[in-house]
Amino acid sequence: MDADNGRPDRPPQPDRPAQPHRPDRLRGLVRLAFGNPVSLGYLALVIAAVAFAVVDELAVHHPDASFSGV
After folding, report:
1. From CA 44, how far away is CA 9, in angstroms rounded?
2. What is the pTM assigned to this prediction?
């Protein structure tokens, strides 16, 4: 036991990087966003809506405002 804090002595730990779990978190986020069929469907809908709004804004002439961006 360590006399200072009452905990058992631990073997010395090797030097670790400041954030050792960051690649695992990023990999998990990518897997969650692109590995799930429901997430892929949602992302496809969002990309389609953004593409429609951009094409409508840039390529189609309207006499007044368009609600495609809303």
Report:
1. 54
2. 0.54
What residue type is 59 in one-letter code?
Answer: A
Half-sphere exposure at residue 9, Cβ-oriented, CA atoms within 13 angstroms: 5
> Which pLDDT score, from 0 to 100, does residue 6 have?
59
Query: Alpha helix locations (H) across the chain?
Result: 22-34, 37-59
- Tally the C-alpha atoms within 13 A of residue 47's C-alpha that lie toward its C-beta: 6
The reported pLDDT for the residue numbered 21 is 57
Residues written for the chain? 70
Q: What's the rounded Cα separation, in Å, for the pair 57 and 43? A: 21
- 23 or 56, higher pLDDT: 56
